[in-house]
Design a protein that fits this description.
single chain; Pentatricopeptide repeat protein; TPR-like_helical_dom_sf; two-stranded antiparallel ribbon; mainly alpha; Serine Threonine Protein Phosphatase 5, Tetratricopeptide repeat; 4 domains; flat
Length: about 850
């Protein structure tokens, strides 16, 4: 139990009663009923004030209150109110602190009492009190001089100007987005350790960075709610102590919604703040009332908000400055609540006024009417009226909103008509027609619409359009449906992944049906056609007629591989072979990854051998990355010496295939990642000779030189510099020192041969990095002091096993030209070179 503090007043007539006893008596006594209490007269209150014991806390609060009143009078240039009370007679006060239960210690003076009870250093507290007293005395002195008149009044005026200048320089205040000016912001009357939340809020209000430049920053919004919500319980005990300008400043910050500043909880914060202001008896301004009503509506109190809106028609709704906002709010709320009649009356009042109304306010009415089957045509007429009012000012975004309104409630025909209105300037009515005009009924027109819907994120709407137009005889192209499948998969939500899976397999079924029909037609001498069998979907049901492509299978394969659905991936591969599309490298890569995880690396390697060497499927860079990832050094945590030795042999075989097979780089990412994978795999397998041979080969065929960052990673033995563990950082620091020393050594050799290190060409820098790499590998192999001839013999043997002896040692130009991996994209190749 924390120690309790109390002050004891000594007087001639009163006996000692400790504060803990008084508190216990107060708790035991029941509160009187509100209707039994009476307001005391001013004379009685004054008498009680004179008789009441005054503690240090009360004195501090009274002093702070007098200080605030004096500042307010100074700001408003008011005369200080006359008071009948004279200066309070100082009282002799003894202070005690309850150290333990029932044991008290007398404190030295009020300074020690303030430190114990308020948590504020006594020197700081005394300095604050002294400053406040001097400022109050200064203001009182200026008031007295002005009353004298004459030269004294002129002198007082001059002093007052200097005093105000000092205050302005010290407390510059804050300016809101609309030019509101806020002075010194502080909530008085709360002190002590238990009021720390209010002190934190005061510290926030005093920040110079808050609302700097008139616009709150995201951190201002976060901190404002953080400190205010923490202080609410304390402020609720004395709402009257919160000044009006503090309320206005909090409102300005929490209600801010500007470009580039996100305030997702804006309405909830405004709802809470408005309730607190109401509890404090603060009258909301008209603009604040409108925002508070909207916040109430969005917080779930819809009927109450609409009722408050209706009651404000005479006050807020009749003022020119709030007329437009009032009726726009009414249209939105009544539309969302389903009261379309009242919403239309409010919109009609607004549109017939002279307040420059925006016809786009009718969009919520269109949305509310379209939600009811019986009011669809009425919603269409409201859209037509809005379009007529906007004329040439109607934007594409307006059409998008109207289209979304009809798509959301499955009125596809109305949505299509709105899209036709957007695409064509002339009138074209397609509603109710069985067959669409040629200019609309084609997959190019459908593709434009699908692209816009998918780009806007309305994926369900795009699917509805596909099914509707197919029934009208317009089938989507495979690339359009593949785009929809890919967009669904990218959301990574369970519902959308299931929808993508269903649509993709429907496309695959259409492809398999086409292949089956083609096979039957080839075996017959007359045309045939498919007819529905019993149990198959009726013409009213959607049956996808768009056939799957390689991209369709690739999208599903990538998704199944990422999710570890190996059985589904094998089923997809079976369907892929039946679809007679011809295997491609992307599908092979996904199968290799899946087999590595589900069936083991040998199954993956056998599948690769079958596809590339028996069925002659061309691999790509990702194929070899997937192959190197089958090695045990890239799969298991605890290394096995026998498996590591096998990995060295298998890795050399993979590299031989990498060189001899016909493939090209497609991107810079492949160019960067494949050499890293090869070199790190050989490093883990301790095939140091293979590393040097592979690096020399890649320099000839890829024009690849290991960058300095890769050298540091190889020296440290870690595949990335981004892992911030202490062990990795120590290894990286040591590796950096090693690479720097090797680079300095080769730079000195270059200078000794007559070169200028500051003017090294790109080719010379690449040669230096390759030389540093080879010396680094020798250091790793503990062979830096070995004889050069012995090292060359080992490298030659490794080059023979890797099938690159003609490239590395004899450097046959014809062989190098034959196996050189030039990128398909010339721009990418130029960037790399």
């Amino acid at each position: 139990m924390p120690p309790r503090t109390f002050a004891l007043e000594l007087s001639r007539t009163s006996s000692y009663v400790c504060q803990s006893c008084i508190a216990s008596i107060g708790r035991a006594r029941s509160n009187p009923q509100p209707w039994l209490t009476r307001n005391a007269s001013s004379a009685a209150r004054a008498a009680r004030r004179q008789r009441a014991p005054t503690t240090t806390k009360q004195l501090e609060e009274e002093q702070a209150q007098r200080f605030q009143e004096a500042l307010l009078r100074e700001a408003q240039k008011e005369e200080p109110a006359d008071t009948d009370q004279g200066p309070a007679e100082p009282l002799a006060v003894n202070y005690f602190n309850e150290e333990t239960e029932g044991q008290y210690r007398q404190l030295r003076d009020g300074a020690e009492f303030g430190a114990v009870s308020g948590g504020i250093d006594s020197e700081i507290s005394e300095a604050i009190n002294d400053l406040e007293q001097k400022m109050v005395q200064t203001i009182q002195m200026l008031d007295s001089l002005e009353k004298v008149g004459g030269s004294e009044q002129d002198k007082a005026e001059e002093l007052r100007k200097q005093f105000k200048k000092i205050l302005r320089e010290k407390y510059k205040g804050k300016t809101g987005p609309e030019g509101e000016s806020y002075g010194v912001l502080r909530i008085p009357g709360f002190s002590g350790v238990r009021q720390r939340a209010v002190a934190n809020l005061n510290s926030f209000l005093a920040r110079d960075s808050v609302v700097k430049g008139g616009v709150p920053k995201p951190k201002d919004l976060f901190d404002c709610w953080k400190y205010y919500s923490a202080a609410r319980s304390s402020l609720a005990t004395q709402w009257s102590n919160v000044p009006r300008e503090v309320w206005d400043f909090l409102w300005m910050v929490l209600s801010h919604q500007g470009e580039g500043v996100e305030n997702p909880n804006r309405m909830h914060h405004i709802y809470v703040l408005a309730k607190d202001m109401q509890a404090a008896g603060v009258v909301l301004r008209d603009s604040q009332q409108l925002l508070a009503i909207e916040a109430m509506f969005l917080e779930g109190w819809q009927e109450e908000a609409i009722e408050a809106w209706k009651k404000a028609v005479v006050t807020i709704g009749s003022k020119p400055e709030t007329f437009k906002g009032y009726y726009e709010l009414g249209v939105r709320m009544c539309s969302l609540h389903g009261d379309t009649d009242r919403a239309m009356r409010a919109a009609d009042t607004l549109l017939k006024s002279s307040e420059s109304p925006n016809p786009r306010i009718m969009i919520p009415i269109v949305r509310a009417l379209a939600a009811r089957e019986e009011n669809v045509e009425e919603a269409w007429e409201v859209y037509r009226d809005m379009r007529a009012l906007l004329g040439d000012t109607m934007q594409i975004e307006d059409y998008d909103e109207v289209i979304a309104c009809f798509l959301a409630v499955n009125h596809i025909e109305h949505a299509l008509q709105a899209f036709v209105d957007m695409m064509f300037s002339g009138p074209m009515d397609i509603r109710g027609k069985t067959r669409l005009p040629t200019i609309v009924g084609n997959h190019f027109f459908l593709g434009k619409w699908l692209k816009r819907l998918i780009g806007a994120g309305d994926l369900d709407g795009a699917y509805k359009v596909v099914t509707f137009l197919q029934k009208k005889g317009v089938a989507a192209s495979p690339i359009q449906l593949n785009g929809l499948v890919g967009a669904w998969l990218r959301t990574e939500t369970a519902d959308n992944i299931e929808k993508a899976d269903q649509l993709a397999w429907a496309m695959i079924k259409a492809r398999l049906d086409f292949v089956d029909l083609r096979r039957r037609a080839a075996a017959m001498d007359r045309p045939i056609r498919l007819v529905p069998r019993d149990g198959e979907p009726t013409p009213d049901d959607y049956v996808c007629t768009t056939r799957a492509t390689v991209e369709t299978f690739s999208l599903l394969a990538e998704n199944y591989s990422a999710r570890g659905l190996h059985d589904e991936l094998e089923e997809l591969w079976t369907a892929f072979e039946l679809a007679e599309l011809g295997p491609n490298s992307f599908m092979i890569n996904q199968i290799i990854k899946s087999y590595t995880e589900s069936k083991g690396p040998q199954e993956a390697i056998d599948f690769y051998e079958q596809m590339t060497k028996k069925r002659h499927v061309r691999p790509d860079a990702h194929t070899f990355i997937a192959l190197y990832n089958t090695l045990s050094v890239n799969r298991v945590v605890r290394r096995d010496s026998k498996l590591t030795a096998d990995d060295a042999v298998i890795g050399r075989q993979f590299f031989q295939d990498l060189v001899k097979m016909d493939w090209k780089f497609d991107s810079v990412d492949e160019y960067t990642y494949l050499p890293r994978t090869v070199l790190f795999s050989m490093l883990k397998a301790k095939d140091h000779a293979g590393m040097i041979v592979a690096a020399r080969t890649m320099k000839e065929l890829f024009s690849y030189s290991p960058p300095e960052q890769l050298l540091i990673e190889l020296a440290a033995g870690t595949a990335t510099l981004r892992v911030q563990s202490k062990r990795n950082m120590d290894r990286i620091m040591e590796a950096s020192r090693l690479i720097e020393s090797l680079i300095r050594k080769h730079t000195q050799v270059f200078a000794d041969l007559g070169g200028d290190p500051a003017k090294m060409t790109t080719q010379e820098k690449d040669n230096q990095l390759c030389a540093v790499f080879e010396e680094l590998v020798l250091v790793k192999a503990h062979a830096q002091n070995a004889e050069r001839s012995a090292v060359n013999n080992i490298l030659a043997q490794a080059a023979e096993e890797m099938g690159v002896f003609d490239i590395v040692f004899t450097r046959d130009p014809a062989v190098i030209r034959r196996y050189r991996k030039v990128m398909k994209n010339k721009d990418v190749e130029d960037d790399v070179d």
